[in-house]
Fold these 2 entries.
Entry 1:
Amino acid sequence: MRSPCPICAALDLVGDKWSLLIVRDMIWLGKTRYNQFTDSPEHIPTNILADRLKRMERFGLIQSKPYQDNPPRHEYHLTDKGLELRPVLIEMIHWANKHIPGTITPPVPID
Amino acid sequence: MRSPCPICAALDLVGDKWSLLIVRDMIWLGKTRYNQFTDSPEHIPTNILADRLKRMERFGLIQSKPYQDNPPRHEYHLTDKGLELRPVLIEMIHWANKHIPGTITPPVPID
């Protein structure tokens, strides 16, 4: 850890442009599989997706489990630790809806 | 913008390991000046600090104003847009205090 500051510690885990989008896809869109994540409109590069899934599993935010043997494929689910990032994302939604023109208000309930 | 998703739009502005630490220093520690930010325990590199302050001003999160002419020096203050990131940070604090061992609970009221 860079410091014992909780904000800093959180950013060390999810302070990048992609990890929280994967959490978003899992929470609100029910995505679990590799090609579902690459289908999102932000078009996450596959090498970044692979890296972030590995990091997020190492940090205890997600768990992987195999769903196919040949070729081997995994699906990914949020742990409680990952799921509980939801309030952070909800505050980001409120903030962006208020301050960044052109952002859409989610059609699903977020509170 | 990568997409009209508000979470994505927020991350395009503050989805990095440093910008929100600068916001933290401004909100809770009242920091406004360059050397005050470099004094924080995370030791932000000066080139990154300069880059982030420029980006944050371009994004409308902070405003700079000169406080000294020779040599020229600026101080930085949050705009309403920057200040209203507070609820995002507070949710990060709650999340990290619960899920990341070794993080300290801030001694000042955060709610």
Entry 2:
Amino acid sequence: MSRNVYLRTLPISDALELVMSRLDRDALLSAERIPTHEALGRITAEPIYAKASSPTYHSAAMDGIAVRAEQTFAAREGRSLELVRDRDYLPVNTGEPLPEEFDAVIMIEHVQELDQNTAAIEAPAFPWQHVRRIGEDIVATELLLPQNHRLSPYDIGALLSGGIFEVPVRTRPHIIFIPTGDEVLDFTRRPEPKPGEVIESNSQVLAAMARLWDVRFTRMDPVPDDAEALRRAVEQGLAQKPQALVIGAGSSAGSRDYTRQTMERFGEVLVHGIDAMPGKPSLIGLAGETLLFGAPGYPVSSVVCFEQLLEPLLAWMQRMEPKRRPRVSVELTRKVPSKLGQEEFLRVSIGKVGSKYVATPLPRGAGLITSLTRAQGVVRIPAHSEGKNTGSSVPAELLVSEPELGRILVCVGSHDNTLDLLANELMGLKRPLTLSSTHVGSMGGLLALQNDSAHLAGAHLYDPVSRDYNFPFLEKHLPGRQIRVVNLAIRQQGLIVARGNPKSIEGLRDLVREDVRFINRQRGAGTRILLDDELERNGIDPQQIAGYEQEEYTHMAIAVNVQSGVVDCGMGIYAAAQALGLDFVPLARERYDLLIPEEQAREEAMQTLLNLLRSDAFKEKIAALGGYEVGLTGEVMSPGTGLG
Amino acid sequence: MSRNVYLRTLPISDALELVMSRLDRDALLSAERIPTHEALGRITAEPIYAKASSPTYHSAAMDGIAVRAEQTFAAREGRSLELVRDRDYLPVNTGEPLPEEFDAVIMIEHVQELDQNTAAIEAPAFPWQHVRRIGEDIVATELLLPQNHRLSPYDIGALLSGGIFEVPVRTRPHIIFIPTGDEVLDFTRRPEPKPGEVIESNSQVLAAMARLWDVRFTRMDPVPDDAEALRRAVEQGLAQKPQALVIGAGSSAGSRDYTRQTMERFGEVLVHGIDAMPGKPSLIGLAGETLLFGAPGYPVSSVVCFEQLLEPLLAWMQRMEPKRRPRVSVELTRKVPSKLGQEEFLRVSIGKVGSKYVATPLPRGAGLITSLTRAQGVVRIPAHSEGKNTGSSVPAELLVSEPELGRILVCVGSHDNTLDLLANELMGLKRPLTLSSTHVGSMGGLLALQNDSAHLAGAHLYDPVSRDYNFPFLEKHLPGRQIRVVNLAIRQQGLIVARGNPKSIEGLRDLVREDVRFINRQRGAGTRILLDDELERNGIDPQQIAGYEQEEYTHMAIAVNVQSGVVDCGMGIYAAAQALGLDFVPLARERYDLLIPEEQAREEAMQTLLNLLRSDAFKEKIAALGGYEVGLTGEVMSPGTGLG
């Protein structure tokens, strides 16, 4: 059983400094001359001096008449001075050259045309008045831009105006990426992955970043877990003399071993492992003047490797300040324990609730690319911290612009497929709204409302005593709070079973069968509460159910466990079974509501959402999912309504 | 004399709303399917649901052994449990599929290998421990992204992982730009402009912005000031069905008349003139579903038109929040009067002096593209304001990142060519520094130090009584302040005359000749003070000098006036004459110093600058300019030193 050993992991900043100390920056990027109009974003390799002056002539800065200032000094209000065309003045339009011997322009608004050849003025002109002077913008030979300056659109304009049609710039860094791993499928073949296979996508995340960073990117064909094949690929890559060659680990540890071994074959490993989570198993090495990277296989780990190691080094190479994301202070909605000695990159969903930004931590797994696509920000938990408590104020680096945060509705609570539908519809509005849902179960939603950390919560909490939904729980957990309860839909809960129901599962009693493997929802989920209630009513001991202790967080996760054959059944909604083509054993109808604090319900964005809920078009779309009734959808519920 | 009349100018926001109210956004951009890995930055045209789950299988999330959790429950610290390979456990590496029938992984660090076939554990595993579960990231059929979502690098990764190899996205907006004007030179021909000619560059400023906005851009060939030629060009442009067609006015008003007339021929003019400065003469119209723009000819006006009108409309079309620049609060170093009823876009140079950001207004002319390239920010002075006083705190939109502001040295005062040299050298340092120089004359520099609005000032103030430089002025204007005076160079001042000195100007006495046209430096400039002193000493009456009232702000501006033949001579430094190949009549040597408040002199960045000044390499570069002596360069001056 061989395994990777991290000799000594380093904090990110130490790793970067170590690498920079080993490189001669001046030798890394050569210079080239390229057409100015194609040079946006490039870095000047030399100071650039103007060749032409701009403007090249004195010109009128206003529409009016050109005059000799000294001939106008006698003009006074009420004592106008008459000027004769050609002799004393000439008409002139903005931008036209100032006629020779004239040195000022009087705006047309201040000129009285007496006839074709006579003009009267009531105020003197001072010399150079309204004249755009030669060289006013640029004087030939003056410094237009210093060396090591990144060219903006304005710079392109100034260079062309100064007669510079070619600029000496540093070559753009070039990154080569080699995907590796036996299990890796080449996305260019549009594969349909079978169990055990992974569609290779990290290369394209980096390719897209390279576009944003404005550097060259080349992806080589994927290489299997084979030392010799990897050696050949690296050799081919290095022959192109890139500034960075990145070996993308497959997800197996074996391939990562080859990465290190191969890096050592061509050069030297400088960093093996960083004190970061995700991102720890990153490797940095050096082969000649090419940086070598071993990027972890998990998507979020590889993003950390790209953004925290590769990007700063590329920026440094180009003498650019690395891009910094905008930051806001956020309040964490949940306690986040973190490992001492490792900086953690926590993805969070952010929204503005009342006057504060609240950040709900997303699932922390390094394998979850969706934890990045669903995030609006990243909270860095420092290495010296053991975590953050609920309600802590921490800085978040934003993945969206700050104004966009104001257009996000934070929904925390139970999961339902109609929330996806709702999210999509809200993005189709004239002024789109983002619905950011975090699935922590119905009770988690109530807790979020209690802490003012969500705009709304989705819940379907059934109280067997009152036979009512949600209200009994609100009374208990949010006494005195004005919460508007609006129905989203009535939905069918039941057992999700494999297609054709091969184990002939007919109801809850089948769950205790020896040959039936079950999977449960997490504690606090409405579905779990519903199940426990049904089990109790039927006198079934949960301990007899194989898999009762195994928990998933969403209906879809339950369904995919059934679909893959890992379990035989789980409890969930009809829509989840239908989405994956599974069979369904109905057990109960239940009401799924949105719980909205009154102060939130009055906000414009929430009004928009509520209007959408009441629209027939939206109800039809819910109904089309199957397993939903929309008779109450969009209506305000009151206690005791039950299923209506 | 025909001229443009603005029927009714509009505030920018009103203009945008008017245009948006006339467009059907849904019809503007069609949809297309493109490969996912090429879709960065594009906007989804439909919701996107996953086709594949990810991962497709349960896999080990750690290196270790796969076990059945229920078989491990008896393990305790100090009471280890032995497991038999194949029967009770199997070794497993991160990412490898979890062997069938196993449901948990124990990290290798917590396993004691007794022999090849026996492992001992001291703690139980809970079900799913360290298992990356099927569908944990993505479940097939779930919503990956809603409609109208802009694709990030992370999204590309999620889409590929979810088996989406093609995405439906909105087409990118397409901008066509037609440069116009008889005086306009096509930059692609690399022209050398003669007086009266202008190198067309606005198209390339827009082209570069289009790259940043990620929209398509096409430039058509320049069109002369000819109504029929413009009509044909617009017709050709519209045939491509762009989302926006921009007619770039030449700098003559005539061509702008054609713009409006041509727009009306193909469609309707919605906005003629905005309440903005620069940018007022912008036109917006509509021809079918194509936006028509008449962009002003002055470079800064056209930038305002592009950024304030075109960009927000393109963003709106794509349902994107328009990009917002980072803002900081700055203190204005000078009073800025502004016209009521017009929003002004004031370009400012920003630096951090002490704990505050200070903003020095740059020249305000709409024709000065360098007022943008030299700016670090833009201050918007609202239409309802008549301007801002010195010391006002105002928000500035940053053109650089905030960390870059910390790397700027603000130099205010007299102009000298060696400052350009210094600026370039500072950008070549390991950690580059930006030297931002504003030229307001030596007295203006002293004033800036008085107000703590600069890190250093350049001055060459001569006091005829003490025959000393700068110190007498510091004593008078900054009494009690600790100012370190460091020499930059001793330089030659004199009369800059045309090549070959055709008017045989030999000295100051020639300035009163009838045939000699002079141009002066502005009041407060050290050169002006020197001239006035020399005139007085020689008993010459300034009123007798033709052109004494005409002022320029820099040595180079004086030189270019001489070079173009507008004047016969002006006072300035040798380096300026030499740069433009002019002749020079020496009058005096003078000391040019950098005045640095002691608290600034102790800062790291200033230390870097001072070290650079003392280096031989830098002194050699100054000397190579000609007209400079470097015997005192980099040395700290004390009162009474004079010329050393």
